[in-house]
Amino acid sequence: MSAPSLVAIEALDSDNTDRLQAAIDGLSASGGGRLELLAGIHLCRGLQLRSGVDLHLTAGAILRPIPDYAAYAHTTVSVIAEKSDRGMIVAREARRISLTGEGRIEAGCESFITGDDETVGTFIPAEFRPRVVVFEGCDDVEISSVTISRSPMWTLHFVDCTDVAVRCVTIENDRRLPNTDGIVLDACRGAVIEDCNISTADDGICLKTSIGPEGVAIGRCENIVVRRCSVQSLSCALKIGTETHGDVTNILFEDCSVASSNRALGIFSRDGGRISNVRFSRISVECRETPDGFWGSGEALTVNVVDRIAERPAGAVENLIVEDVTGRMEGAITIIAAAPSGIRNVSLARIAVDQQPGELGTGRTYDLRPTNADLAPKADGGGRANAWTRGSDGRVIGLQDYPGGMPAVYVADVAGILMNEVRITRPAPLPQGWNAIDVVMETTASDGSGAWQN
User: What is the pLDDT of residue 448?
Assistant: First the structure.
């Protein structure tokens, strides 16, 4: 007699991992089904989701993973992120898997905080932190309706997956804990993210192509749609990069809102992959200045190409459309090619943004981090790996002064840019340190050298 296609499990006062994992294994072995977690608190260590299984959190159910990195030694993953090689809920080479329901995952980030860095206004994270969900090489994946709170690291990480749907998910992370990205699509093909609400200290929705254990890109990221999402981010709300080892193409962000964010829209090419055919459409933005040790400072749109490692030049950014963007920013719009691969064929249309001064004045610099300097910060200088490093002058490497002050739009070394109905409302009189020219365009030497190279 085959196992039932529905298994319901009541909450326990103790670790319920073995019972949950046995139910997942049994359902998958019998052809698939739903594992329902009933109302109450379910404590567990790492779980391995298997083909054909829907892990369903009913209303009132709280999945509370044990806040100890060692508890996930049996749910390791191949792609390392911020030294993390494990996740709380993982799947590998699985098909038809889902995480659904009206319940919650409370991920316990407070147990992975070791201090408070007042210089940049963030907590200091523990050296090793698990991600909440990591699915690798999976097909036909759905995550819907659940709420995830207080992630210690990246929240949802999809690696080399196909046919992915993330719908009506709420992510509520501590906005002072770095590296708590909301949703990361890493070399995924065919994905839809829609109707999600995300509040986090790091990137909100991020598309990237990481490097695998063999030292090559794990794949391409293509045919992605992100729509009707609301994001608050203390890094970049809707982002492509920074890891771009493989190509990224055919990407659409539409009908989204960005609030209380450092940056709204961003493309960051660093690692050799070409980024092409990207459209940001009908997006409202609200971007604020931040201390100069943190990411960005109030830019509605940031696009840049930088050779992070000389032996692996950054790939080009081509065929970018940004249209129907409204809102407020305390920085500028920046599109900068600081590497020979360059940026080509950019269209800005129907942009209506108010540019207002912030309280910190950090919006008067543009940000090209991460740079080569951030790969291995020196022990005797302020810095954080892959984030920021201070030079001998005490300034953060990668932050550059705008020539002549901050304009509304700064374009450097872009081949082919069209602006149609771009209206940036600026205060009068202009604040000190602002450029009287609204749109500044610069061209550097053909090798890409210029003031922004570090």
Answer: 44
Whole-prediction pTM: 0.95
CA distance 211 to 217: 4
Q: Mean pLDDT, the chain, as a whole number?
A: 93
Apex 226 CA angle, 169 and 138, nearest 5: 70
Band the pLDDT of 397: cuts 50, 70, 90.
Answer: confident
Query: Residue 24 in 3-state DSSP?
Result: helix
Type of residue numbered 266: G
SS3 27: helix
pLDDT of residue 60: 98
Within its chain, how far is the Cα of 276 from the centroid?
A: 18
Q: DSSP string of 217-264?
A: B---EEEEEEES-EEEESSEEEEEEEEESS-EEEEEEEEEEEESBSEE
Q: What's the pLDDT at 445?
A: 45
pLDDT in tens, 270-290: 999 999 999 999 999 999 999
295 pLDDT above the threshold of 90: no
From CA 179, how far away is CA 151, in angstroms rounded? Answer: 9
Pairing of strands 388-389, 383-384: antiparallel
Residue 145 scores a pLDDT above 90? yes
Task: Give the contacts of 375 (CB within 8 A, at least 6 positions apart).
Answer: 308, 309, 385, 386
Residue 273 and residue 251 in contact, taking contact as beta carbons nearer than 8 Å: no
Q: Contact at 8 Å (CB) between 129 and 112?
A: yes
Nearest residue to 210 via CA among 266, 161, 139, 261: 161
Alpha-carbon distances of 380 from 124, 293, 389, 391, rounded to whole Å: 18, 16, 11, 11
Q: Does residue 382 carry a pLDDT above 80?
A: no
Query: What is the phi-psi region of residue 179: left when phi exceeds 0, alpha when psi lies from -120 to 50, beta otherwise?
Result: left
Under DSSP, is residue 406 helix (H, G, I), strand (E, B) or coil? strand
Query: Distance from CA of residue 137 to its chain's centroid?
Result: 20
> For residue range 111-127, what is the model confidence (pLDDT) as tens digits?
999 999 887 788 999 99
**Sign of the four-CA dihedral 102, 103, 109, 110:** positive
| Residue 98 DSSP code | E
Q: How many CA atoms are closer than 13 Å to the CA of 250, on its beta-carbon side?
A: 11
